[in-house]
Fold these 2 entries.
Entry 1:
Amino acid sequence: MFVSASIGIALSYAGGSPEDLLSNADTAMYSAKANGKGRFEFFDEAMRERTVNRFEIETGLRKAIDERRLVLHYQPIISTVDERICGFEALVRWNHPERGMIPPGEFIPIAEESDLIILLGRWVLRESCRQMAEWHRRFSSVPPLTVNVNVSSRQLCDSHLLEDVEAALTESGLDPAFLALEVTESSIMGNAEQTLGTLDRLRAMNVRLEIDDFGTGYSSLSYLQRLPFDTLKIDRSFVRDLSAGSDSLDITKAIVEMAHSLRLEVIAEGVETEDQLCQLRELGCNYVQGFLFSKPIPSEAAPSLYPKTREYGLLSAESAPLAVCELG
Ligand code: C2E
Ligand code: MG
Ligand code: MG
């Protein structure tokens, strides 16, 4: 057996009780583990702040789920062919009593370290299916839209995911064909054999499956071929750097061609300019999503753009790109 040690060191010159000193050393030890193990780290104030912040987020989030303080905002996904909305991506926010709307980047990574992500994900699934089913009933004269829901790697490995998806669909009455689950490359490739079964079963339920943030993680091409995906979302880092002659243009072109030859549709994320839209259309990208059309907006605001854009297309409407609600 080879044993390695991670060491946390705290100094007592700042005063405080022996318990504080031990607790600080403990915090530094966890930091040493998180930063690669087999090393030592000294405790500092920033470490304490991070720990307190994490703790506050974790306990606050648990309460927020119970008290229904999470909200979903919806960002339209638009077809490059006719510039019409085909669906919305549901993106969670935390409506904090003191801090206002907290973006997911601040709490999802913390939720992902415990079972909190399972509770949060279950709520997101239920709420987004409920909302989309309601829109389907309300706007029954227009073709139904799809709702995209992000699923984290921990959820994907959780044995209850299938039940949760089934429950969300049954409760809401949403047709499974209008639910798309987004998973990142890394969360699949990390344990591909295990997730393959789950993904196959989801596919058998007729739920759509999409690869999120494609190009930022690592993918095994043989798995890409075997996994039952319908769509691949090109990460916005490639879209941002799209300009004639750049590497991103070549990479994006290659991704679109590869996806199409695997019979996958392609969504480009983070489209902010007309120029990017034109290039993506030329490359044959099927859908786009980004601030050029709309930021993620609250559910109350979505219906106002829903039937109109469906009828006229977004960009061909005379108005400038959609009025948007800023995230607080
Ligand atoms: P994502 O799934 O890749 O979602 C797209 C993110 O890009 C969203 O950020 C969206 O607001 C942002 N975005 C869209 N268009 C543009 C653009 O044109 N320019 C720029 N700069 N950004 C754009 P958001 O809402 O902050 O979400 C961040 C990430 O948090 C998401 O990335 C997703 O990974 C995660 N997330 C959000 N909601 C959920 C959820 O319900 N469950 C889980 N597991 N993760 C979620
Ligand atoms: Mg996503
Ligand atoms: Mg993404």
Note: Confidence is low (pLDDT under 50) at residues 310-328.
Entry 2:
Amino acid sequence: MWVALEGGDGSGKSTQARLLADALGAVLTREPGGTAVGARIRALLLDPGTTALDARAEALLMAADRAQHMAEVVAPALAGGRDVVSDRSAWSSLAYQGYGRGLPVEALRRLSDWALGGRWPDLAVLIDVPADVADARLSAAGRAADRFEGEGDAFHRRVLDGFRTLASAQPDRWAVVDGTRPVEDVAARVLAVVRARAGA
Ligand code: TMP
């Protein structure tokens, strides 16, 4: 099974991805940046010094990372019978480049589908955290904001609304977990929904 953890910046989904992968004994990976080539693409995308990047160029860089990630990490792991837990996936492109940047969501769905060779995560888990809570967590972390974190509140609200819209449109592909609870409670809930879907 391939499970993607999704959510806004500051949602805690990276922590949850790690805990879920530990609990399942799964391969833990991420987008962007799950491969050597992807790490270079990620550095370019997250660098606040990358200014005036066209939204379509941004989407294509995400898709390039995704294609490499599928070829090098996800497909071999699944073929070898491993479970895969990914910190973000193609759904983030629909939320960020689509709802956030305003590119057409259907075009991003087709682009992502092509990058993935048609194989999407079996389940996406949205770690749902209100924008103001996520913002407070990022400020408390006290590190310099990356290019996405540095976007304004309006951008982050559009992204979160986008995730919620995507999740409610395809409940068979998504589960939504309240990310404001303590870390261990969220982890237990994530594991429970993944086990329930895996057994379904
Ligand atoms: P991360 O810091 O949560 O690992 O993700 C890096 C940033 O990249 C995050 O702000 C979300 C953004 N992103 C997109 O805009 N589109 C995508 O397709 C992916 C995978 C990530």
Note: Residues 9, 30-32, 46, 62, 87-88, 92-93, 96-97, 148 surround thymidine-5'-phosphate (CB under 6 Å).
